[in-house]
Amino acid sequence: MIIAIDGPAASGKGTLGKRLAGHYGLRHLDTGLLYRAVAKALLDAGKRPDEADAAVAAARALEPATFDEAALKGPAIGEAASLVSAIPDVRAALVTFQRDFASKPPGAVVDGRDIGTVICPDADVKLFVTATPEVRASRRTAEYRGQGRDIDQATVLADIVARDARDTGRAISPLKQAADAHLLDTTNMDISTAIRAAIDIVEASRAGRGRA
């Protein structure tokens, strides 16, 4: 079974992805980490995140098993990753890896911004997870502060709004809800409620497909 989860920054798709993977005994891939890792490689090398040739080389050299997720979750990396992800050749370089990951038994939960539309268009279940920018900014600020980072929520909100504009407006693989994706608005949900709602969607979809 393949579950595709898409949505904007800080919508909760990563947390849902992990929980659903655990619930169904599937592997989980946060594809945002791939782009963050490319961005970090560029920044560490003193390069700009919009340097296409360097970004493509970094994408082809990725070793996901070595990722330090905590190091990849910083605000500067997230901002750079949004720029990196708009480079068509970077996205092309990562497509095969993502599809191969999803296709291996027993399946996977894959989250990102073009999973249901580009990476896994034939996924068994598709979710589009969202929330208002203000709620997403509040969640992301709490996450950063929990990591000991001193950051202003207004700054986080401005970054989220800018990232939304880039993600939905790029020419290649823009963020959008797949026609057959189930919308899950988590604005007024805590994590337990959101997980229950997501499981209900998956179960209803599996019943409709003969429990694939």
Gist of the model:
The chain has helices at residues 13-24, 31-44, 52-60, 69-72, 75-84, 88-103, 115-119, 133-146, 153-169, 191-208; strands at residues 2-6, 27-30, 108-112, 125-130, 182-185. With 212 residues, the chain is of the alpha/beta class.
Description:
- By secondary structure, the chain is of the alpha/beta class.
- The longest helix has 18 residues.
- Helix 8 crosses helix 9.
- A five-stranded parallel beta sheet has the order 2-3-1-4-5, with helices on both faces.
- Helix content is 56%, strand content 11%.
- The protein is globular and about 50 Å long.
- The chain has one domain: Rossmann fold.
- The N and C termini lie close together (6 Å).
Topology:
Layout: E1 2-6, H1 13-24, E2 27-30, H2 31-44, H3 52-60, H4 69-72, H5 75-84, H6 88-103, E3 108-112, H7 115-119, E4 125-130, H8 133-146, H9 153-169, E5 182-185, H10 191-208
Parallel strand pairs: 1-3, 1-4, 2-3, 4-5
Helix pairs in contact: 1-10, 2-3, 2-5, 3-6, 5-9, 8-9
Q: Please write the CATH class name.
A: Alpha Beta
| Multimeric organization | single chain
Task: Give the C-alpha Rg.
Answer: 16 Å
- Which descriptor suits the 3D outline? globular
CATH superfamily: P-loop containing nucleotide triphosphate hydrolases
Structural class: alpha/beta
* Order of strands across the main sheet: 2-3-1-4-5
Q: Main sheet? A: 5 strands, parallel
Return the CATH topology: Rossmann fold
Mean pLDDT: 94
Instruction: Give the count of structural domains.
Output: 1
Q: Helix content range of the residues, please?
A: 55-70%
